[in-house]
Amino acid sequence: MTPQNPGVKGWGGLGALAVLWGGAFAIITVAVDSVPPSLVAFGRLTLAAALLTAWTYYQKRPLPPLSDRRWLWFAGLGLFGNALPFTLIAIGQQEVPSGVAGILMGMTPLAIIMAAHFVLPNEKLTPTKAAGFLIGFSGIVLLMGPSALEGILSTSFLYQALIFGGTLCYATNAIMYQAAPETPPTTAAAGALICAAILSLPLAIYDLAGGATVNPSWGSIAAVVALGIFPTALATIVYMGIARKVGAAFIALVNYAVPVVAALLGLVLGEELGLTTWLALSVILLGIFVARRKPKHKRPNPYP
Questions:
Q1: Partner of 196 for a Cys bridge, out of 39, 67, 78, 256, CB 3.0 to 4.6 A?
Q2: Cβ–Cβ under 8 Å, residues 42 and 200
Q3: Cα(131)–Cα(287) distance, rounded to whole angstroms?
């Protein structure tokens, strides 16, 4: 499908995605306050899977039979696109402010660029893309702090590394989706979320059996429900509704807005984001801009 002019619907959808995804980090901070990260991930995934499955059948695009090999792809997409990153991010945000977490996740498009070079034949790394990646990665180093190299096993570094691991998971998911069999987007999303919920269950059971403290406040319960409805289920529906019409290049603009929204909402929650954090955000956004910049085509010399 040839991308259309975004129009009001396209720009409105893009703004909604920026708020939904950028706001997720602030909600996670509230959720993990009294609920173990594994249960936060399982709860939001289970609720989102139920909502997306209902939406899929409402759209008259039922899930394939269990004998269909696409379920293997759904399992992979669910693992790397939902179960694993949701858990890593929730664990990391026990110690990392939501604003910083959102900025770390701003590296997702750059991680996709690097991964695509090794997997997708039509997405080779160019000097411009490489420069963008190096600039963005320097922003991550700046954010984590130079002391990270000295105390690489420090608590702060490890929790930030877990969140950055979520970035790599999202990149893996994006590459897998490119190679997955042709499936209606809403059907693929519902199947992936079902598998993600199932895959996240063992860790939740392990934590409960291991004596994890579970004394959820009403605020944390509401946060888990909000995570399942808004940045997981609703965001997926909005994304599917505009992505194919406006094209991937337009949708990718959301990568500029999500870290900014996350940082601003972190300030609303009373988090302190120092000059280094804002500088790191600027460097990461610059890296994304450079990596996505299309090279100018030289005009042919009319003279021999």
A1: 78
A2: yes
A3: 7
Spatial distance between the Cα atoms of 268 and 22, rounded to a whole number of angstroms: 13
SS (H, E, C) the chain: CCCCCCHHHHHHHHHHHHHHHHHHHHHHHHHCCCCCHHHHHHHHHHHHHHHHHHHHHHCCCCCCCCCCCHHHHHHHHHHHHHHHHHHHHHHHCCCCCHHHHHHHHCCHHHHHHHHHHHHCCCCCCCHHHHHHHHHHHHHHHHHHCCHHHHCCCCHHHHHHHHHHHHHHHHHHHHHHHHHCCCCCHHHHHHHHHHHHHHHHHHHHHHHHHCCCCCCCCHHHHHHHHHHHHHHHHHHHHHHHHHHHHHCHHHHCCHHHHHHHHHHHHHHHCCCCCCHHHHHHHHHHHHHHHHHHCCCCCCCCCCCC
For residue 4, pLDDT beyond 90 = no
Burial readout 247-278 (b: 16 or more C-beta within 10 A, e: otherwise): beebbebbbbbbbbbbbebbeeeebebeeebe
* Burial (0-12, 13-18, 19+ Cβ within 10 Å), 74: buried
d(CA 229, CA 46): 10
Can you read off the two tokens belonging to residue 48? 């989102």
Range of 60-69, 136-145, 204-213, 265-274 with top mean pLDDT = 60-69
The answer to whether residue 300 scores a pLDDT higher than 50 is no
Nearest 10 degrees: Cα torsion 283, 98, 40, 24: -70
pLDDT tens digits, one per residue of 77-93 = 999 999 999 999 999 98
Q: Which amino acid is at 202?
A: P
